[in-house]
Amino acid sequence: MEFPKTDSQSLMWIINRPELVFTRGEGSWLFDHTGKRYLDFIQGWAVNCLGHCPPEISAALKAQVDQLISPSPAFYNAPAIELAALLTANSCFDRVFFANSGAEANEGAIKLARKWGRKHKNGAYKIITFDHGFHGRTLATMSASGKPGWDTMYAPQVPGFPKAELNDLDSVKALIDNETVAVMLEPVQGEGGVIPATREFMQGLRALTREHNLLLIVDEVQTGIGRTGKLFGYQQSDVEPDIMTLGKGIGGGVPLSALLAKEAVCCFEAGDQGGTYNGNPLMTAVGVAVVKALLAPGFLENTVARGEQLSRGLLALSAELGLGGERGVGLLRALILADDRGPAVVEAARNLEPVGLLINAPRPNLIRFMPALNVKAEEIEQMLSMLRDLLKR
Ligand SMILES: *Cc1c(COP(=O)(O)O)cnc(C)c1O
């Protein structure tokens, strides 16, 4: 197949894309229109937690597509009920609202916190978020994000998102006033450069928010669904948040996200929240397959082991080549480069012949790795050896 140069111009330009058309995926491997294969450590941006086209997801989609696709979000359907029950049975939360993207789940969390503030806290509405945080691309979630430049890009912002510094409890304390209703953070800042919130900080935040009667909201769109080696990232620090959002991995590649909350916080009244596709059985059937796969004996143990293997390999590479070390949790990790050649490394890795490598640089001085959670040991070794050859050039 030739690259469709003219037809591809009909897609709205949002970023320079390489002139490749990906046509097939299998596990940790992607294939382009020329038949070249790529070892994929991006996985649709940490989305394909079971790899490309896993049999569990194909089977769930095929079975559901002939049964029922969209009855309406105002009716119950069996996969949505089953997935909600699986999520509440395996977390500290009591209720689930399904949505279609991480940003939409976070919008729901923001609305729920504001509603709770109106009902129980004299109309308090401010949600303290963090510099370099990332919560999505809707207007409110862009305002909640701490990405440099996003405050003016589509001005005016949605008000009410003062920014603190991650891992600095005093910076949070300093922002609390009568109008504060919640603190919202990613347990590991993903787009910000794979920066974990420390266990001490998470516990300090939980104590501080309890003391001031504030909600603690965790955005686990990237860290949830096994990415850190536990089912949810908050479980790494033994805190119980009031609200959590999930996205990316929960759909294993299809658009599905979720807002979870403790019973005491669930205060939506009839008509306050909704959405045409929310909780549709085609997507929630996939969610059920994903969560069951992760809960199978040995699955998360293997994710933890692969995370340790990746960490050791990156540290060895860093020591050998004089780089800045590595960081992360589970299978969300970053190699810190000594300079800003991240984007050049990403491009050279993709262009390697005969087999390409897909990695990503959320910041110019680091490379991020978010492989499938069931990535094989030999695939990690192959990735490390390809990266080593590349960085030595
Ligand atoms: C990707 C991401 C989002 C946004 O999810 P979309 O599905 O792209 O809307 C929100 N929060 C975090 C932490 C993310 O990594």
Could you characterize the architecture of this molecule?
This protein has helices at 43-46, 55-65, 78-89, 102-120, 139-144, 150-153, 169-173, 199-211, 281-295, 299-321, 342-350, 377-392, and strands spanning 22-26, 29-32, 37-40, 95-99, 126-130, 163-164, 180-185, 188-189, 195-196, 215-220, 243-246, 257-261, 326-329, 332-336, 355-358, 360-363, 366-369. With 393 residues, it is of the alpha/beta class. The strands form 4 sheets. It has a 7-stranded mixed sheet, with helices on both faces. A 4-stranded mixed sheet has the order 1-2-3-15. The protein has a 4-stranded antiparallel sheet with strand order 13-14-17-16, covered by helices on one side. The structure holds pyridoxal-5'-phosphate. Residues 101-103, 106, 134-136, 186, 190-191, 219, 221-222, 247-248 line the site of pyridoxal-5'-phosphate.
